[in-house]
Design a protein that fits this description.
Layout lengths: L9 H15 L15 H12 L6 H9 L2 H4 L4 H8 L1 H9 L8 H11 L5 H16 L11 H16 L6 H18 L1
Helix pairs in contact: 1-3, 2-3, 2-8, 3-6, 3-8, 5-6, 7-9, 8-9, 8-10, 9-10
The chain binds zinc ion.
Amino acid sequence: MPSLDKTKEPVAALLGALKFAAAKHSRQRRKDLVATPYINHPIEVSEVLSRIGGITDLPTLQAAILHDTIEDTDTSPQELEDHFGQEVRLLVEEVTDDKSLPKQERKRLQVEHAPNLSTRAKLIKLGDKICNVSEITPTEPAEWPLQRKLEYFDWAEKVVAGCRGCNPELEEHFDAVLKKSRESLL
Ligand code: ZN
């Protein structure tokens, strides 16, 4: 009897990505006051894509969960390919900054590259910016002065401008979240 590879079953594949990302981010924390476990962020990004964007495409949701593993942990592209296949590995690489470059250059390149991303990568960027913008409040991140928060909003808006045209619900949600976060700082 042929043995079925249960890791290919969609729910198992999604949970596999979650387990992998949780292990990789296990010692990292967000910049908020209570130092939320980092894994909450990729969980939120994938949940927003699903709930707001109506995304059911498995590689997109897996890559959303894994989107910060290459950039922020010791995960190699090959490791992602071994666990989740080439499609997911390529998607995560698409949304990964080149950490050998200075921060300002990386931010500039995100704006420049956004229009050329694949549709799936644009969706992940949208979800990422929605979650990051919604986390900025008058009190958090505590070490960010007001000016840095305002500059972050302007930059996120530029990256999202290059990702428009693939999911109206996510784009409208970004606009609403950005408006709310901006107004909270006034
Ligand atoms: Zn992220």
